[in-house]
Amino acid sequence: MNVVNELNFSFLSKSTNESFARATVSAFILCLDPTISELSDIKTAVSEAVTNCIVHGYPDYLGIIYINVKITDTNKIIIKIRDKGIGIPDVKQALEPLFTTSNDERAGLGFAVMQSFMDNVKVRSKEGVGTSVTMEKTLYRTSYDKR
Amino acid sequence: MVVETDFTDNILTAKLYGEIDHHKASSIRNKIDSQTESLRPKELHLDFTGVSFMDSSGIGLIMGRYRQVSLIGGTLKVVNVPKSLQKIMSLSGIDSLGVLK
Ligand SMILES: Nc1ncnc2c1ncn2[C@@H]1O[C@H](COP(=O)(O)OP(=O)(O)OP(=O)(O)O)[C@@H](O)[C@H]1O
Ligand SMILES: [Mg+2]
To answer: Of A95, A124, A125, B61, which one has the greatest count of Cβ atoms within 10 A?
Structure first.
């Protein structure tokens, strides 16, 4: 498995950037000719992870969100979304559906959505250091033609 | 304009448009809640016809309006959900509230 294309970008944790982030990732992977539902799954997962950085990672201040996207020759898309915010004290608990620390009308479903819309989700976090979410999805339809 | 409202026969209908995410949710919420409080409808309908994208912030929005309208003795209906949003709707379990029409 070789990486055939890669994108790196970073931006301030403002909520207006949620749509920017998912549109940017989506534009980058269009060359793989994803189906509409694959594209929609990926946009939704990116939106969840980015929103978490904005709402939870940097709760009362702005910070930088880093996104790395890799495309492999096996049609796999690997997306890493990272913040240097407050971190998660108990990742296992955070991953449970309906768990939320917010009292701001959140459903506690973000990680559940990422896990069901992507093939694989890994969360690494350290309190006071930050959180990174790595998600993978292999596209079904086409193969990357060694461009 | 991300939400357009109509009040007929004691039914408040909120037509939602575009992409519903955390950024958009708060203005949608404010508009619907202020109308719900002043009109006190028997039913609140959230119409998703024009929604092209939604993440879990949209689920929070639906659950919050469910609570809000229940407080004044009304009921919530979620109508015209496009095919593309059915996956997230069913994952959220909101159909168990009996609001999906
Ligand atoms: N980047 C992050 N930094 C710090 N804490 C996080 C981060 N991402 C998630 N969390 C913690 O994990 C919990 C669960 O996240 P999840 O996305 O599943 O639900 P939510 O964000 O609370 O609600 P929803 O995503 O449905 O709006 C959050 O409430 C928060 O406590
Ligand atoms: Mg979340």
So the answer is: B61
Interface of A with B in 16-35 (CB under 8 A): 16, 18-19, 22
3-state secondary structure A40-59: HHHHHHHHHHHHHHHHHHCC
Q: Which CATH class is domain B2-97?
A: alpha beta
Which conformational region is residue B93 in: left (phi greater than 0), alpha (psi within -120 to 50 degrees), or beta?
A: left
Q: How far apart are CA A12 and CA A64, in angstroms?
A: 5
Nearest Cα neighbor of A113 from B59, B101, B81 is: B59
Q: C-alpha distances in angstroms, B27 versus A38, A89, A124, B72?
A: 29, 31, 33, 21
Q: Residue A131: beta bridge partners? A: A83, A125
Whole-model pTM: value is: 0.95
CA A80–ligand 1 middle distance (angstroms): 16
Contact B56 A106 (CB under 8 A): yes
Domains along chain A? 3-138 (3.30.565.10)
